Fold this sequence. Notes:
The protein is an all-alpha fold and 542 residues long.
Amino acid sequence: MATPASLQNPVRDTRDLQDEKAREAYIQGHDADGIPEDTYPQDIEKGAQSNAHSTYTDERTLSGDDLATPPPIEAIDPNIIDWDGPSDPANPQNWTQKKKWSIIGALSATTLITPLASSFFAPGVPQVLTAFHETSNLMAAFVVSVYLLGFAVGPLIIAPMSELYGRTPLYNISSFLFVIFNVACALSKSMGMLVAFRFLAGCAGAAPLTLGGGSIADMFPPQQRAGAMAIWSSGPLLGPVIGPICGGFLVESQSWRWVFWILAIAGGICGILVLVVCRETYHPILLERKAALLRKETGNPSLRSKLAKDLPPKQIFTQAIVRPMKMLFMSPIVGLMSLYVAVNYGILYLFFTTVTFVFEGHYHFSSGAVGLAYIGVGVGMMIGMVSLGITSDKIIKKQQALGDVRPEHRLPLRLTMPGAVGLPIGVFVYGWTVYYKTHWIVPIMFTSLIGLGNLTAMMTIQTYLVDAFTIHAASAIAANTVLRSVFGALLPLAGLSMYDALGLGWGNSLLGFISLAFIPVPVLFKYYGERIRTNPRFQVQL
């Protein structure tokens, strides 16, 4: 922790000034220009390094450019509290690798469980319809999809709350509520009660999806983020794939209510893990805590965090609630990239709606074995996760050695194109092979391309958004999560009607043509992303 002298003066301590006149002038409050340069070059250098390393932001940072330059040394307010140099152990980026990866492990486990809940329940829908005397196919789809609507609404509350109170309290509160709402689902006495608590469980489960990317940005510099992002972002994709595999056998051996008991138990275990392991990583909150402690210790009420917002909490909350929507609708980068991910995610969930009736009806799988049809998607995602996690950081390190690191380096064509091209191919082949009732192994094999396409799109784009919108990464990810969840929730409701009208062949071909139209998106931002980010017409005042 810095000494009180360093808190009230640009120089850390008057003992660093070897010249007696310089020390006297400094103590009397004279301007730094009156002190000979050769008396404290080390302090000036360290101060510059501190600011270059800090989370200093200006308009360019808030608009998506994290290459902001620090203010000149002479402009530094002596009452501003920042990190104590580039090696400050309180800065989450300087934590030990063990501590960082323990937090990533806990968050990734939670980020797997909450998306898994979206489809874990799907095999039990027929039992629910029978138990509550429901016959509507629309309600059968909605009781599954309503959870994703919670994923769309939750981030709009969670993201702004995290700006006021930090990330860790939101993780802990949301984990507790997730358990409570799943217990309520298990005890539901009617379809309405089940739908309501499924929605609330989705709202609570959105916390790790909304804040996880921001936590990674807090702890890891750009050249180390891809591996952490690969593990964390695999949860929203692998979870819905693993869910039906496990849920099918559970429902077959027990009942649909046990799905929610298992989710409550798993959510509770992950919640305890997060409570024990995770520490606050949000830089503005940490610096504000430091400033508050030093105000108390020094009696200087003017001390304030470098990242403090001189606004009342209500206004901060209002701005934070609006920010994801502003980014979604006013930033072409956030808007178009979120739409690209949302379309892919919607196609994935539309595919999920066909699995049960295709593999039970066409291929005569049992209700337990039908979950195995999701393995192809899971294999594709695992391939994408491993390859991207290894390759992306290597590219950034190479660019760093060349002295040229930009967020657009997260979008190399060798990483984005296999998934972008593979997804429509997978959808086309899956649709026509199940239409002609080809051996079941063929459509399952080609669904791996659907998994690969979804993971490469989500991971590269989320990592890009984190790098481009550093301090507002959580808001950018929240905007992405909201649109993705809306598409994932609503498109499957129209899925069965579409397949009834067009059949499995042309119905999936329609989805394939839509995904083909989005292939240019990663190419566009690879070559023109920086120009768009820095264009004043496209910068959003956040």
